[in-house]
Amino acid sequence: MLSMARVTQEHLDARRRQILDGAALCFARNGFHATSMQDVLKEVDLSAGAVYRYFSGKNELIKAIVTEVLAEVREGFEAAARQSPPPPPDELVGRVMGSVIEGRVGMIHNGEFVYPRLIIQVWAETMRNEELSAVFHDGFGSVRAAWMKVVQGYQDAGMMRDDVPAESVARTMIATAQGFVAQMAVFGTAPVEVLQEGLQGLMSMGNPDART
Length: 212
Prior knowledge:
Blueprint: H1 2-30, H2 37-44, H3 48-52, H4 58-81, H5 89-102, E1 108-109, E2 112-113, H6 115-125, H7 130-156, H8 166-187, H9 192-203
Antiparallel strand pairs: 1-2
């Protein structure tokens, strides 16, 4: 009985994953408003009943996608904050962004990785969808709090000035990652190593002879 229950849960989790991934690809490809639930059903090759068992409609799908991604990012930074000292910013941002991207390598349309497009659309949608905006703000708040713990770890270890508010540093580092995503969405994808190398260069300004 226990084995059957476990297999059934695994099946349900896999089906939910299938629906979320298919919906995310539809949204990235065509936009939220141009995508219908029929488009999602066609993409995942499931019946309406199978999909609606998990999600009541597009808004719930979007909320689930946003919640999942922000949780992944938060957990990555919280794990780093538990290290003493935390990994340096270039390593940490690269690790977390790389993990999120690697989990969505199947989001390809016409040979292009379209996940960054989805992120930009989520940001735009929060400007008009109050419910999604609330979810996004809560998630962003938790990510910022996790980053602040990382910054405090840097300061406690003497790796960073302690006279700069941790929140200011956290917001700036988040903005750096967001800006890189925006560039990928508009100008084409680039490896995460580009962002890491840029951060390394900025971090070396106080020590031009530093080598990593």
